[in-house]
Structures are given as structure tokens and as C-alpha cells.
């Protein structure tokens, strides 16, 4: 499901972090959020990981990357020819794209996938990397996979995870 930032009134997350994420979410639209909002009605991808990415950490990282970017822009020519040039290759932002829920609508994982944006200082071109807290390439019957024949084309075509993986691969080849 699409990520929804917590309400500033009901959350202990600083408002600056929530606002920074809102700004970033409005600036970019990627393959995962497009798939969730446009291509599919109800996406169901099995998630096997029990560890969870910390929502507050991602929101803080996004805010910090945006602040660093804005601080570096005026000095980019000085930095480019110094030992600090690596700072210019840091991400521009991290956006939380989706969450997972269990039956009944309860949020299970706030950060099920993210988009890490890199902005070229000169061309303003954006390069993106996607992360998934789940495995789009796996089927929900993972424990039985070794005991059954390989998935058919029809099965692959019907799998939300395989369609997402194909879109991620395609999107990555376009940049």
C-alpha cells in the first residue's frame, strides 16, 4: 500500500522530518509508487523478513540528505577539487514509497520499500535506486519451492512480485 506519513499531532516524529518527506514525495514519482497507484488495484507480495526498517531513521536520513545537499550547492566548485569531493556523490534524498499491512488494515511495516535519489549538481539529472523490505522474486509457497516444478509463464505473469521486479529492472535500464 502507498506510504502515508504519520499525523504530526499523533506522532513523536519531528515535524521537520515529516515536511521534508512530503516535499520529496511531491518532487519524484517512481516505478514502485506508480505501480501501486496506477497499474495494480491490489498488490499482494509475500514478505518473509521479520526485521523492519525504522521509519524514523529513514525520515531523518531524508531530511539530513536534503539539508546536506542544500548546504553543499553554493560551494560545489570548491568541494569538487578537494578531498571532500565524495560529499557530492551522497544521495539527495530517501523517500518511503510503500508500507505493508496485515488483514484488517493494521500497518505491519511502515517502510516496505524506498527510493534513494541521487541528483547531479550540474545537470540536475536524477538517478534512483530502489530498496525492498520484501522479496518480489519469491512466491508465498517458498517452503515448497524445492518440491514443485518451476513456475510457469502464466504463474510468473500473475505474480505481483514478479511484475514489480520486471518494472524495477526495466526502470533501472532506462536511466
Describe the model.
It is a single chain. This protein has one domain. It is 38% helix and 17% strand. It contains 6 helices and 3 strands, in the order ααααβββαα. It has helices at 15-27, 31-39, 55-72, 76-80, 153-158, 160-174; strands at residues 93-101, 107-119, 126-132. α1 (15-27) crosses α3 (55-72). The chain is globular. The model has no long low-confidence stretch (mean pLDDT 78).
Task: Give me a quick take on this structure.
Helices cover 38% and strands 17% of the residues. It has six helices and three strands; from the N terminus they run ααααβββαα. Helix 1 (15-27) packs across helix 3.
Give short descriptive properties of this protein.
globular, three-stranded antiparallel beta sheet, 175 residues, alpha+beta, single chain, 6 helices
Q: Give the overall silhouette.
A: globular
What is the count of DSSP helices, taking H or I runs of 4+ residues? 6
Strand content: 15-25%
Strand order within the widest sheet? 1-2-3
How many β strands by DSSP? 3
Q: Describe the largest sheet.
A: 3 strands, antiparallel
Name the helicity range: 25-40%
Amino acid at each position: 500500500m502507498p506510504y502515508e506519513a504519520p499525523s504530526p499531532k499523533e506522532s513523536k516524529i519531528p515535524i521537520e522530518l515529516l515536511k521534508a518527506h512530503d516535499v520529496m514525495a511531491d518532487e519524484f514519482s517512481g516505478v514502485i509508487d506508480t505501480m501501486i497507484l496506477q497499474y495494480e488495484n491490489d498488490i499482494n507480495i509475500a514478505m518473509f523478513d521479520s526485521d523492519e526498517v525504522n521509519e524514523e531513521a529513514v525520515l531523518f536520513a531524508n531530511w539530513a540528505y536534503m539539508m546536506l545537499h542544500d548546504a553543499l550547492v553554493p560551494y560545489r566548485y570548491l568541494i569538487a577539487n578537494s578531498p571532500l569531493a565524495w560529499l557530492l556523490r551522497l544521495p539527495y534524498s530517501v523517500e518511503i514509497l510503500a508500507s505493508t499491512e496485515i488483514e484488517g488494515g493494521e500497518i505491519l511495516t511502515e517502510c516496505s520499500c524506498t527510493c534513494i535519489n541521487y541528483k547531479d549538481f550540474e545537470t540536475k539529472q536524477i538517478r534512483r535506486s530502489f530498496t525492498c523490505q520484501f522479496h518480489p522474486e519469491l512466491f508465498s509457497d517458498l517452503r515448497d519451492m524445492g518440491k514443485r516444478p518451476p513456475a510457469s509463464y502464466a504463474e510468473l505473469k500473475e505474480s505481483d512480485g514478479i511484475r514489480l521486479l520486471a518494472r524495477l529492472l526495466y526502470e533501472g535500464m532506462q536511466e
